[in-house]
Amino acid sequence: MKVCIHCEEEFDHLSRAKAKVGGKINECPTCVELLGTETAVRYLGVPSNDGKMAGIQIIACDDDASREAYIRAHRHNSGMNKGKACNISMTGSTVMGGMRGIRVIGDNLGNPNHKGKS
Questions:
Q1: Residue among 40, 42, 44, 61 at smallest CA distance from 107
Q2: CA 86 to chain centre
Q3: Using an 8 Å Cβ cutoff, are 1 and 12 in contact?
Q4: pLDDT for 47-90, tens place per residue?
Q5: φ/ψ bin of 49: left (φ > 0), alpha (ψ from -120 to 50), beta (otherwise)
Q6: Which among 94, 74, 20 is positioned nearest to 29, based on CA atoms?
Q7: Which residues sit opposite 42 in a β-bridge?
């Protein structure tokens, strides 16, 4: 248990509410939401959809709304939640290009030399 530096109330720093809103370790979840003291960038890891199992992209999102929009579009276009395996394309009903508030921070692409082919 910790004591909040703003409201001086005791709170559980290991609770789900605290993990969801973030903030400093000595700020309760309510004060973090009310004062807007969370400044950390929320990252999102998604498969890169290049056909390789090791491919992953790390995406930085400006806010929760853009993060949710991106993951919803990614799941729709990649076939996740449909029992299909397909790659992202512009022919899907959800266009991924031009989404605001999304930046690719890094990616780890799979080996392009699949099964020893040249």
A1: 44
A2: 21
A3: yes
A4: 776 666 667 888 888 887 888 888 888 877 776 666 555 554 55
A5: left
A6: 20
A7: 61
* Cβ count within 10 A of residue 94: 13
The answer to whether 94 and 73 have CB atoms below 8 angstroms apart is: yes
Structure tokens that stand for 117 in this block: 């082919």
Dist. CA 15–CA 4, nearest whole Å: 14
Helical residues (DSSP H) of the chain, grouped into ranges: 16-21, 29-35, 64-78
Question: Do residues 48 and 42 touch, judged by C-beta distance below 8 A?
Answer: no
Angle at 16 between CA 14 and CA 18, to 5 degrees: 65
Instruction: Give the torsion sign (CA, 46, 78, 80, 85).
Output: negative
Residues contacting residue 118 through CB under 8 Å, at least 6 positions apart: none
